[in-house]
Amino acid sequence: MQSHTMYELVDKQVEKLNSQGLIIHDYDDLKNDLRIYGYSNLIKSYRDPYMHFDGTTKRYRNGITYEQICSLYLMDKSLRTCIMAAMLDLEEYIKTQLAEVLLCSFGEKQEDYLQFKNFRDRSKPYTPDRFTLEGVLNSLTEASLSGKNPIKYYREKYGNVPPWILLKGVYFGTTINLINSLKPKERDMFASSFYPPEDEFIQSLSRAQLQSLMMDTLYIANAYRNCAAHGGRIYDFDTSNRFHDRSLFTKIPNPHIRGFNLFLFLLCHLQYREPYKSIMNTLNYELNFHLEKYSEDATYLSQYLGVEILLKTDLDHPKSKPK
Q: What's the pLDDT tens digit per position in 40-97?
C-alpha cells in the first residue's frame, strides 16, 4: 500500500511538471529519479533559474527540459561531495596545527594544556554555554573519556590523551571555538602555520586584520562543511558570515565578494592549498560537463559561483577561474 502511494505521488508530480511547461523526454527516467532523489531535492531546489511568472502562475521558460534541471542537480551534488571531502581534509590539517601549538606552549599532558588560564574567554552575554570557553573545555574533557580509539587506547595505556589525539574526537566547530579562545602568542603561532608568508595579500594585512581573517575563514569553511554534510544546495550557498573587520574589504579586488566566490578566495590564500585545488578541479570538470550541453547557464552560474567562465567558443573546453 505504501509503495502504491509513492507511485501515485510521483505521477501527480509529473503531471504538475507537465502543466508548468517542462519538457520531459523520458518519463520513466524522470519517475525513477523522483523516487530515488525526491521532488524537493531534485526539482524544487534547482528549478528557480529556469522558471518565470506567467501572470500569477509560475511556469518553465520555453525550451527548458527536465534533463537540464537534472544536470544542474548532479553538478551541484558532485560539488557538494567534493567540498565535504575537502573540508574534512582541511579540518585534519587545522587540528594538526592546533595540536602543535598546544604542545609547544603547554606540553602534551591533558591536565596542562586544557587549563582555563591558558586561554581567553571571548564569549559575550547570552552566549550559549557550549560556545563559552568553559563549554569548549568541557567538550574536550568529555571527548577525552570517549570509548573509541585512539582516545581510549591512549587514556588506558598512558593515562593521558595528548592534544594531537584528543582533537581527533571533537567537532570541527569545537576546534574553531578553541582556536578563537587562544591568547595572542598562540594565535600568532597558529596563524603562521595557516597562511604562507610569501602571499602578497597576506603580507599586506596588519596583525589584527590577519587574525580576524583567519577566524572568518574558519567559520565560513565550517558553514560550507555543514551545508554539504546536510545535503544543502552548494553553488549559490551564501553563509551569513562575512569579514568582521570591515577594513579587509579595502584590501581585496572585489569589495562585493560573497558566497562561493568568497569561499574560494579564502581557501586560495591558505598555506595548505589542497582543499582549494580539489574544489577548483571538480568545479572545472563539472562546469565543463554541464555547459557543453547547456551553455546558456554560463551567465547564471558565473554570477553565483563567482568564477569567470570561458565557454567552448572561447577555448576547446569550458574552464573557470576565480574572479
A: 999 999 999 999 987 788 899 999 999 999 999 999 999 999 999 999 999 999 999 9
Closest CA to 20 of 55, 60, 51, 62: 60
Pair 260, 314: CB distance under 8 Å:
no
For β-strands 51-54 and 57-60, DSSP reports them as: antiparallel
Q: Which three cell numbers stand for residue 124?
A: 559575550
Phi/psi region, residue 78 (left: phi>0; alpha: psi -120 to 50; beta: rest), is alpha
Cell readout for 72 is: 544542474
Q: What share of the chain is helix, strand, coil (3-state, %, to 5)?
A: 65, 5, 30
User: If we measure between CA atoms, which residue out of 70, 2, 61, 1 comes closest to residue 34?
Assistant: 70
The strand pairing partners of 54, in sequence order, are 57
Query: Residue 284's CB: how many other CB atoms inside 10 A?
Result: 17
